[in-house]
Structure formats: C-alpha cells, structure tokens
Please model this.
Amino acid sequence: MILLALLVQRYVPLGASVADLYAGASVIRLSLAATRKCRQEFKISVNAQY
Model:
C-alpha cells in the first residue's frame, strides 16, 4: 500500500483537489493531504447494505 501511495503522490500536483472513491481507511488520501497540501479533499464511501 505504501508503494501505491508514493506512486500516486508523483501524479498529484501541489494544491490539487482530490476525490477518494471507495475510500475505506483512506491511506492514499491521507498521504496526499500530508505531502501535496491538497486544497480540498473528498472522501466518498459506498455501502451496499444501506
């Protein structure tokens, strides 16, 4: 998972808005928030039970 987070960080510019679909624990979103200083972050989780 850490390798994937590092890979994604390379493609997200500083100050970008980020949407994390099917976020779960949000490891990737949190790493982007910390390293890329995201302007906005959106976490979208879908639960089929409801």
User: Anything to note?
Assistant: The mean pLDDT is 80. Residues 2-44 form one domain. The first strand starts at residue 17 and ends at 21.
